[in-house]
Amino acid sequence: MRFVIQRVQHASVTIDGKVSGRIGKGFLVLVGIGMEDDEQIADKLVQKLVHMRIFEDENGKTNLALKDVGGGLLLVSQFTLYADCRKGNRPSFTRAGKPDEAQRLYQYIIRKCKEEIAVVEEGEFGADMKVELLNDGPFTIVLDSEEITK
Fold it and tell me: Does residue 78 have an active-site annotation?
């Protein structure tokens, strides 16, 4: 499982010209689900995500988490985070999770985040989405379950 976390001043996702999700200050999270992923891995990454301290405190140190700043989450599924570009110029996505299982885990992640964070918005699994954001910093972190769960 891979989360690409971008600290934002605001972000939104639009599907067919209609805004599906919108947040102010918080995290835009691109969520990639792989073949080997399950709820246990999702739980570990969600806990890491919601406690990630990358907002500045009164001393300018990145010491505050989402809850500390009243931030929101915008979760967007993105299987292309599992692109394998080692051979040729056309990416392979064979390590991405099967659609039914990936969608189930994506919904699970959304539910778990809602248990922790007051404002959780989402994209639509498998949809053609237009994502807009104002990256704050820029500040981007990649969480990869292969690095965190070992």
Answer: yes
